[in-house]
Design brief:
Layout lengths: L11 H21 L13 H4 L12 H12 L21 H13 L10 H17 L14 E5 L2 H18 L7 E6 L4 H9 L4 E5 L9 H13 L3 E8 L11 H10 L3 E5 L24 E4 L1 H4 L7 E5 L2 H8 L32 H36 L3 E3 L7 E6 L3 H13 L6 E5 L2 E7 L7 H14 L4
Helix pairs in contact: 4-12, 5-12, 6-7, 6-11, 12-14, 13-14
Bound molecules: pyridoxal-5'-phosphate.
The site of pyridoxal-5'-phosphate has 15 residues, from helix 6.
Length: about 475
């Protein structure tokens, strides 16, 4: 036998010392984040150039490693947590979720089955059941009540892919030819729908036209479904977007549900961004009919103060999900596999292993309390409403889409060139970052208010920046 392995781990004292240093480092970062430019001034390859070509043969000191956070990492950071981050949708995070993530990393439990991670499994079951109530979703989606249930996935794209895979499997075991199945989403649905459909092997993907307010035109959906049936195809799956990425348009869930039900289709809802807002009862009318869908996804990692990755996937009937994914080799057999109180999450997603992601969400829900989470969402919607009003009142600017939550879409009245110049000026300021986009050849600016550290004064600063760069009134 060889000798004992060398004592190469951090000692308890060292772990505490460096752990405290890193907490201090992150606390300073949160405190000073506003002093950074939102985007880094670097070229592709600059960070790589600071790194050696091969991994170190000899151990390096933690002091050197920690020093490289400032030397190597910071110069290449796009600061998603900056209060001037209005781009894409927010990447939610909070000091509390970082602490939950830290503990989960140390515990490093593998939650593939109840027996390998009872606490991780039952905390996840519980927290997702809490969320069903907090968001006003059907109580039959609770694991405790059933027949539905929820599971944390890495991303909304994973949830959507999974729902496509389950729908396909259900139809194939009923004897329907997989090559004849058709998937439908609006022309403004997220790209993850087409990606998920491709991965799940669907051959026919339809892009349904939208109305003037960019929500799915249900009449066009009904027409496309009829045409497909007439040509011998089988409508299989449809997505209602609850808040599109382009403009947060809300698809008419109830009408889509009726078309889905009449034609035996799986109905999935993608509320990746907007789902967090449903913690406030006054926004729930935006997802009227949600109780009729077969699956639903939303991302606490966007707008609920929980760092990536944390996306929730609910199914109205969990037996279909488990039936699709349950493959049981002898090495995974265990004594509680038949016990309904012992959820084996390996049957609820693609990977076998899984992290203890529920810990950070549990920390967040408890540490903030629903009251503060509601206030957080409401403040962003109020500031977006004020920004929308200022844009609307300014003859140099035009709104390009109705605002439903905290995303404001507008352009320069001078057209695409002037809009591009305005975006460039805002983004060059270093204090704010917005996303330019295009719908039907019309360029516009997306301002998505939702970062953890954004305050009203930051939105005021953004307005001053817009005002100063929009040209003469
Ligand atoms: N769906 C919508 C409506 C989105 O806006 C996004 C991302 O912005 C996604 C899905 C994809 O989310 P994820 O990164 O969690 O896959």
């Amino acid at each position: 036998m060889s000798e004992e392995s060398p004592d190469m781990h951090l000692s308890k004292d060292e772990f505490q010392n460096y752990g405290y240093q890193l907490v201090d480092w992150l606390a300073e970062y949160f405190d000073k984040i506003e002093q950074y430019e939102v985007l880094p001034s670097i070229e592709p390859g600059d960070i790589r150039e600071m790194l050696p070509d091969s991994a170190p043969e000899k151990a390096e000191s933690m002091d050197e490693i920690i020093a490289d956070l400032d030397r190597v990492v910071m110069p290449g950071m796009a600061h998603w947590q900056h209060p001037g981050w209005y781009a894409f949708f927010p990447s939610g995070a909070s000091p509390v979720s970082a602490l939950g993530e830290f503990v989960a990393a140390g515990l490093a439990t593998q939650g593939m089955m109840w027996s390998t991670a009872p606490s991780a499994t039952e905390i996840e079951n519980t927290v997702l059941d809490w969320l069903v109530d907090l968001l006003g979703l059907p109580s039959s989606w609770k694991i405790n009540e059933g027949p539905g249930g929820g599971v944390i996935q890495m991303s909304a794209s994973d949830s959507t892919h999974l729902s496509l895979a389950v729908a396909r499997h259900q139809l194939e075991i009923a004897g329907i030819d997989g090559n004849s199945l058709v998937v439908y989403g609006s022309s403004h649905a997220h790209s993850s729908i087409e990606k998920g459909a491709r991965i799940a092997g669907y051959k026919h993907i339809r892009s349904v036209p939208v109305t003037q307010s960019f929500d799915m035109d249900a009449n066009s959906l009904a027409q496309l479904v009829s045409e497909d049936i007439r040509s011998g195809l089988v409508p299989a799956w449809v997505c209602s977007s609850i808040g599109t990425t382009n403009t947060t348009a809300m698809d008419p869930i109830r009408r889509i549900a009726s078309i889905a039900a009449d034609n035996g289709m799986w109905h999935h809802a993608d509320a990746a961004y907007a789902g967090s807002a449903m913690i406030c009862p006054e926004f729930r009318e935006l997802q009227d009919g949600v109780e009729l869908v077969d699956s639903y996804t939303f991302n606490p990692h966007k707008w609920l103060l929980t760092n990536f990755d944390c996306s929730i996937f609910w199914v109205a009937d969990r037996s279909k999900l488990v039936q699709t994914l349950n493959i049981l080799p002898p090495y995974l057999r265990n004594e509680t596999e038949e016990n309904p109180a012992a959820i084996d999450y390996r049957n609820w997603h693609v990977p076998l292993g899984r992290r203890f992601r529920a810990l950070k969400l549990w920390f967040v829900l408890r540490s903030y309390g629903s009251e503060n989470l509601r206030a957080f969402i409401r403040s962003h919607v109020a500031w977006a409403t004020e920004l929308e009003k200022r844009v609307n009142d300014d003859p140099r600017l035009e709104l390009t889409a109705p605002r439903t939550l905290a995303l404001v879409c507008f352009r320069h009245s001078g057209g695409n060139e002037s809009t591009k110049a305005l975006v460039d000026a805002i983004n060059a300021s270093g204090s704010a970052y917005v996303t330019p986009s295009v719908i039907d050849d019309v360029s516009y600016i997306r301002v998505s208010i939702g970062s953890t550290w954004t305050k009203q004064r930051h939105v005021e600063d953004l307005w001053n920046l817009i005002d100063a760069n929009a040209g003469p009134r």
